[in-house]
Amino acid sequence: MFYSKKLKKFVNISHGFFNREGGFSKGIYKSLNCGIGSDDKIENVRKNIEKVCKKIGCNKNKIILLNQVHSNIVHKVAKIPKKKLIGDSLITNKKGLALGILTADCAPVFIYDPVNNLISALHAGWKGAYQKIISTTLKKFKSKGSNFKDLIAVIGPCISKTSYEVRKDFLNKFVKREKSNKNFFYKKKNKIYFSLSDYIKKDLLKYGVKNIEIIRKDTYLSRNNFFSARRSIKNKLDDYGRNISIIMIK
Asked: How high does pLDDT run on average in the chain?
């Protein structure tokens, strides 16, 4: 598990970015697979989530996970929903309500407003980032009285720019929207690479969020022991597990 140095300073916040270590799953899901949507045995996934909750200090029945769809849909939550919410960002100011995000190369992002005691957990792959999941979430914070300069944002472990090879049409899509987006791509040996975390950081800075931390752990590299969709596809595996990231107000 990895912590944010910035969030660790706040005693009223519990959080963690988990890799694949320390769970109950077997085979390609070994071992802390928290992906309900994977083909792993559901009882193992549930035990993994329960173990993560114990580590965070939250009730296993008080964690909210989304049906993530690479969107810009944000939900303000005050209690456990009756049905799983569809979207990619959660916001709450309620104590003991844990917000969880599942990833396998995409970026988990935490945002905290220490003035209004408001937290968010969001899922930002390239599609969600392109569809402005960051700015949509920030606007929700503003509607709740937040000042952007007070916010703390943490971009969790995700695929790094040295591993994230993309095609030219991918680059063109971003540059067509904004020429300066070219800064988030680089070429090496006639291949194009994209920095997802720096692109997310740009969106945060654009809205005046300056207190930003990036946890630079490349999920694609096997030595970091994260689940990675890209690595699984490269290795011709049928499926892959999901890493979980959780934040909660104590």
From this structure: 97
